[in-house]
């Protein structure tokens, strides 16, 4: 990998000095386990999976409870039409964790019923895991609040913004996208990439950020540009809410703002951009290859695309992320290798292949193999045209 990879890695680790990530894998497991047990508890309480016995119709061998399709479970939960797919998504995760059985027809049975002591232990371990990972209290509260609000979320009585912005305050969203150890590492490493790009620039920089959201990565990139020639930094998002928030938060003369839906089209600036930033959002594209091909076409020779991406869906996001992804028609529309599944994220290998297939050369791929931070399944990927 390139010398830039080394410098970005060093900068990222300097930003989290004092945090020992050696126990990250165990801590992630404990956070995941809490959510899985919480889901099992809710489904056991509110669906026929919790009432099934071997005597019910549908049981096909003694000792096993009746088997039910995911759609039946969604009905039991009272899920709104656009959220019905989430029940199947949860059941698949519970099955992978060994907490519910699945027969050859894809029906579910014998849901694990967590005991009170088991839940109490998971809650205690969650707090220890939070502290071990250097996560702020808001992240733990988000997980617990999402479990409490599952019925209202599924019925579409409240939206995911109620989780990320309780009482309209941004502290929880900041904790998710900025105030945690992996975000600090990745955002600081990303800033080092921009510093390198700015030092090499022979003209004023032209930068586009896609789906910038609350500006969690933007906040680390903008200081790098202070005092440097920048023609524009175009901050885009699908929601006017985030654009208005950014206008109040950031103060730089070169900042511009625009509504943009990456599923429709990108700005028409072929061969003009020096950097395209997409932090924790490119997975929302219906077809990753098409998106990266469009991005490559926007870059000037030597221009870079900077991605921060989750490369594995952890159970701890199951009670929040699916609700953000639901469309009016149900699950998100996928036209690439995720088509026909409820997968949200690409693996590291899939991202590397997609970048290279778009004519981009990967220069940064962090965290390094063997780094304990890899257990958190978020990565910085930088590729050059």
Question: What does it look like?
Answer:
InterPro entries: Methyltransf_12, Methyltransf_Superfamily, SAM-dependent_MTases_sf. Pfam families: Methyltransf_12. Residues 208-305 form the Methyltransferase type domain. One of its GO terms (molecular function) is methyltransferase activity. Keywords: Methyltransferase, Transferase. The radius of gyration is 22 Å and the shape is globular. It has helices spanning 3-15, 24-46, 70-77, 84-96, 116-133, 137-148, 150-154, 161-164, 171-177, 181-200, 218-225, 240-249, 288-298, 321-325, 348-357, and strands at 101-102, 108-109, 205-210, 230-237, 255-259, 273-279, 299-310, 361-366, 378-384. The chain has a seven-stranded mixed sheet, with helices on both faces. A two-stranded antiparallel sheet has the order 1-2. It has a domain at 3-19 and 180-311 and 346-384: 3-Layer(aba) Sandwich (Rossmann fold), CATH 3.40.50. It is an alpha/beta fold and 385 residues long. Helix content is 43%, strand content 14%. Strand 3, helix 11 (218-225) and strand 4 form a beta-alpha-beta unit. Residues 53-62 have low confidence and may be disordered. Helix 2 packs antiparallel against helix 5.
Mean of pLDDT: 91
- Largest beta-sheet characterization: 7 strands, mixed
| Biggest sheet strand line-up | 5-4-3-6-7-9-8
The H-level CATH homologous superfamily of one domain, spelled out, is Vaccinia Virus protein VP39
Please tell me how large the radius of gyration is: 22 Å
Q: So how many helices?
A: 15
* Number of beta-strand segments: 9
Q: In angstroms, what separates the terminal alpha carbons?
A: 16 Å
Query: Structural class, judged by helices and strands?
Result: alpha/beta
Which segments are poorly predicted (pLDDT under 50) over 5 or more consecutive residues? 53-62
Portion of residues within helices: 40-55%
Strand content: 5-15%
One letter per element, helices H and strands E, the order comes to HHHHEEHHHHHHEHEHEEHEHHEE
CATH fold name of one domain, please? Answer: Rossmann fold
What CATH architecture of one domain would you give? 3-Layer(aba) Sandwich
Identify the CATH class of one domain.
Answer: Alpha Beta
C-alpha geometry: globular
Keywords: Methyltransferase, Transferase
Protein name: SAM-dependent methyltransferase
GO biological process, one term: methylation
Organism: Nonomuraea rubra
């Amino acid at each position: 990998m390139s010398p830039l990879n080394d410098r970005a890695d060093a900068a990222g680790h300097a930003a989290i000095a004092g945090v020992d990530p050696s126990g990250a894998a165990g801590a992630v497991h404990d956070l995941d386990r809490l959510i899985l047990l919480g889901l099992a508890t809710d489904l056991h309480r509110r669906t026929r999976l919790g009432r099934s016995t071997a005597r019910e119709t549908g049981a096909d061998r003694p000792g096993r409870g009746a088997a039910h399709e995911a759609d039946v479970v969604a009905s039991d939960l009272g899920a709104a039409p656009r959220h019905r797919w989430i029940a199947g998504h949860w059941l698949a995760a519970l099955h992978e964790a060994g907490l519910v059985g699945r027969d050859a027809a894809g029906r579910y049975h014998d849901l694990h019923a967590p005991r009170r002591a088991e839940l109490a232990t998971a809650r205690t371990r969650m707090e220890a895991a939070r502290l071990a990972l250097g996560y702020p209290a808001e992240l733990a509260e988000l997980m617990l609040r999402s479990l409490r609000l599952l019925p209202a979320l599924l019925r579409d009585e409240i939206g995911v913004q109620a989780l990320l912005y309780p009482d309209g305050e941004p502290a929880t969203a900041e904790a998710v996208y900025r105030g945690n150890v992996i975000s600090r590492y990745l955002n600081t490493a990303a800033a080092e990439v921009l510093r390198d790009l700015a030092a090499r620039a022979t003209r004023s920089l032209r930068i586009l950020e896609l789906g910038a959201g609350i500006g969690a990565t933007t906040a680390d990139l903008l200081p790098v540009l202070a005092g440097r020639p920048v023609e524009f930094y175009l901050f885009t998002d699908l929601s006017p809410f985030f654009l208005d928030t950014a206008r109040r938060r950031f103060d730089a003369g070169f900042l511009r703002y625009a509504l943009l839906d990456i599923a429709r089209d990108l700005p028409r600036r072929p061969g003009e951009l020096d950097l395209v930033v997409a932090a924790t959002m490119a997975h929302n594209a219906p077809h990753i290859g098409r998106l990266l091909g469009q991005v490559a076409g926007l870059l000037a020779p030597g221009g870079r695309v900077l991605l921060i991406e989750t490369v594995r869906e952890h159970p701890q996001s199951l009670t929040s992320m699916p609700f953000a992804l639901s469309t009016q028609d149900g699950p998100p529309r996928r036209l690439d290798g995720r088509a026909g599944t409820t997968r949200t994220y690409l693996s590291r290998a899939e991202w590397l292949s997609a970048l290279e297939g778009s004519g981009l050369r990967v220069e940064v791929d962090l965290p390094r193999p063997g780094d304990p931070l890899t257990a958190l399944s978020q990565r910085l990927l930088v590729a050059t045209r």
